[in-house]
Amino acid sequence: MFKTAVRAARPGALAVRASAKPSSSSVRAFSSSVRVLSGGPPPPSLVGPGAKPGTVPTDLEQATGLERLQLLGELEGVNVFDDSGLDASRLGTKANPVLVPSFDVERIVGCSGVPADSHDVLWFTLKKDKQARCTECGSVYALDYQGEEHHAEHHH
Ligand SMILES: [Zn+2]
Known about the structure:
Blueprint: H1 2-20, H2 25-37, H3 59-62, H4 65-75, E1 98-102, E2 106-111, E3 122-127, E4 132-133, E5 140-145, H5 149-153
Parallel strand pairs: 1-5
Antiparallel strand pairs: 2-3, 4-5
Helix pairs in contact: 1-2
Bound molecules: zinc ion.
């Protein structure tokens, strides 16, 4: 099928070559574009369809990105985000902090000590590449960043 496509393109390419002298790479470019078009299904869309005219959009209609991913997950009964508690079996230290998985460059963390609930929940912001320490019990936390590096740079 590939060869057929290139062969079909050839008369046209030759005709162009006579006047504009394109390099032989123009034929290759054509065949690679055929390969792209015959590829797999498009990636799932994380952009909602929007509201119908004259109506107020629902969250499902207007949510995009991670929020949409979460809503679509809920429809399927899947919890997209891990909202289970952090490791409260030990006190985090500078050398061995409690890791907080995150797709964003910062997360708000609530510490209630070791074991859990041994002090009132203390909330603080944990940032990528910067450990945070609970001022109540001294447990040290670090962000376990799982997002894309180039995406993180836009936040600086
Ligand atoms: Zn604490």
